[in-house]
Design goal:
Elements lengths: L1 H21 L2 E11 L1 H25 L4 E6 L3 E5 L7 E12 L2
Antiparallel strand pairs: 1-4, 2-4, 3-4
């Protein structure tokens, strides 16, 4: 009777562990410096979108299904330089997760 209980608990633990470990999230980031805030935002968003698409293709090529995609808003700040040009730095981040 004890052995059956041990096997049942072990089976439940393995099932819970497999479910928790089944979803994998891959980080994608973008870091762009460009002249003008509008241009920096455009290039950073395009770079982030391309990174997400590449990560999706890589996951699908490995036989996994893409689940949730979590994109954060771009963070743009004025980028100081010696010449006084209007440069901006935009940083973006996303996560591409697999289905469980």
């Amino acid at each position: 009777m004890k052995r059956i209980a041990v096997f049942c608990v072990a089976g439940l633990c393995m099932t819970a562990w497999a479910s928790a470990a089944g979803a994998t999230c891959m980080p994608v980031s973008s870091d762009i410096v460009s002249l003008g805030e509008q241009a920096a935002r455009f290039y950073a968003q395009r770079s982030l979108d391309n990174g997400v698409e590449e990560q999706k293709k890589a996951l699908e090529a490995s036989g996994r299904e893409v689940g949730k995609i979590d994109k954060r808003a771009l963070d743009c700040k004025h980028f100081p330089n010696l010449l006084g040009a209007d440069e901006w730095r935009c940083v973006g981040a996303a996560k591409v997760c697999t289905k469980i």
